[in-house]
Amino acid sequence: MRIATYNVNGVNGRLPVLLRWLETSRPDIVCLQELKAPQEKFPEGAIKAAGYDAIWHGQKSWNGVAILSRVGKPVETRRGLPGDPDPSHSRYIEAAVSGLLIGGLYLPNGNPRPGPKFDYKLAWFDALIAHAADLLASGLPVVLAGDYNVMPTDKDVYKPERWLDDALFAPEVRAAYARLLAQGWTDALRALHPDETVYTFWDYFRNAFARDAGLRIDHLLLSPSLAPRLKRAEVDRDVRSWEKTSDHAPVWVELKD
């Protein structure tokens, strides 16, 4: 089974790119972020025609998350993160799909730092950590996938010295991610590529993609019962080179049956 996460940066504006990637990669389950579309504007018909059922949590102009599946309709179990300090933001959705529990998330950016946006990011991270602990306590096979807006280590950012003041690389944020992993989650991409330079995001500015000046901020975390089934974990980085594409590339894992 192939499970992917993809920050589409506008599901309607990037719909041709999304549909092309779905057709060529054929992931079984996909978590999308930054839909930037209200609930009624999600392109359900086009997604359905591509062979995917979907649930989504939309928001006009900003945020928005979705779960797509071609291996059975997602059965929604949660919409919104418990304890979210600002539930008006559409940042979390959760569903049972084909024997797995899938949590799709879009963690706040947090810039500028310091300030209220950074405080919100830390509070949201705390709420995620609390909910993740409850998910692990359930004993269910869980994947937490999405745009975490954090580079966990120096390996995950081009020229880390340039990012010391950024909310995505702040010590408090990296420490929160480490606390999350310490619960027992496996960072799938890093687990299979422990020493490689692997990025999932390249800014539109300063020719970042051509220079490979990237960040690794999109992560798939596996619960302990799923970690032994991890077979592959990759980034479809060529998608980042397509016309009118997102500044993120899709990331996916393959699990043994």
Automatic annotation (TrEMBL):
CDD domains: ExoIII-like_AP-endo (cd09086). One of its GO terms (molecular function) is double-stranded DNA 3'-5' DNA exonuclease activity. It comes from the Bacteria. Residues 4-248 form the Endonuclease/exonuclease/phosphatase domain. Its cofactor is Mg(2+). It is an enzyme of class 3 (hydrolase). PROSITE patterns: AP_NUCLEASE_F1_1 (PS00726), AP_NUCLEASE_F1_4 (PS51435). InterPro entries: AP_endonuc_1, AP_endonuclease_F1_BS, Endo/exonu/phosph_ase_sf, Endo/exonuclease/phosphatase, ExoIII-like. The keyword Disulfide bond does not apply. Its EC number is 3.1.11.2. Keywords: Hydrolase, Magnesium, Metal-binding. Belongs to the DNA repair enzymes AP/ExoA family. This is Exodeoxyribonuclease III. It comes from Sphingomonas tabacisoli. The gene is xth.
